[in-house]
User: Fold this.
Amino acid sequence: MCGLWLACAVAVLGHNPETSYAEVKIAADKVETRLTYDIFTLVKIVALDDDRDGRLSRAELSAHLPQIDRFLHEHVWLAIGTEDQPADETEDLGELTGFVWPPEVGEVIGEADFHSANGLIHFDFLRKVDQVPADVTLTFGFFREFGDRHTVLGNFKYGGRDEEITFDSYEPNYIYDTFYEPPLSHRLWRFFKLGVEHIFLGYDHICFLIALIVVSKFREIVKIVTSFTIAHSITLILATLDVIHVPTRLVETCIAATIVYVAVENLWVKDTRHRWWLTFFFGLVHGFGFANVLREMGLPKVGLLRCLLSFNLGVEVGQLAIALALLPLALLLARWKYGHIVVVAISITLALFGLAWFIDRAFALQFMPF
Assistant:
């Protein structure tokens, strides 16, 4: 019963890793829009693998380019306004000037990379203007097709200034004011919220914390949370600033392995006083996972370190909230005569989830529903 409850909870908390990207560059005579999707997302628009060999060639993508172009024009809208008149009613992206194939994959992309950085395809659109727009509105209407949990990480560029925006099914559009520069506090608040959201929607990090806390005492929980915080802060900063680089798939696979290890160890561990240093080592791994998310968001040039620290603070607040919520459960299980049985059931369930994620990520099988 407890295992079933936990499975449902993880399903609810699980997040869909699907993310696409949008970049809008504004100049005096043109507006350039680059939309980026991985192949896993593109096949929701049109079946691309014509010969069904589990790979996508550049020629296959070129053959379906008109269909992709039509879909994007029907589901992504760009409205431009000037000082003399409000945003137009055409909401046209402009002319598709071509696509950019990943440079390091050759002429063919294997199925294992359909949902990775090596499967990202850029589509470039150009729209001519007579003067610098006063405002540019970008709207996405494809969340029904791509899923309500799909997220678009957007970036507007004008005059050496960047403004990062997150689009989703709840906030599908944004009006960019060319002549207004938001204060740094807005960016800091945005990255803080993203840090909190990433923890609450990060099913793997939540499972890792559950596995650690359900067998720990209060004093040990304090040490565990502290060591995890210090460790992942170190690798988060180093990886985000490109001091250290670790492949995304390796990081995600290792995160799944940490869940399996801790959950299985719960089945026989008696003394958990060593968990703080184990958590420190595993926290280094999880920090690389946080960095991958933050790097994809595109850190601003202005206030970079402060935005990075703001994101990390959001992660800590979310993590602390989860730990405090789990604390009463840990205390109850420690005192209840059937508590050990419940801990075993929870740990086995977490180990199975972790093992499934490990296999899925290691071999890029993409069979996990969340």
Observations:
- The chain has two domains: 19-181, 189-362.
- Residues 189-362 form one domain.
- The CA atoms of residues 142 and 160 lie 30 Å apart.
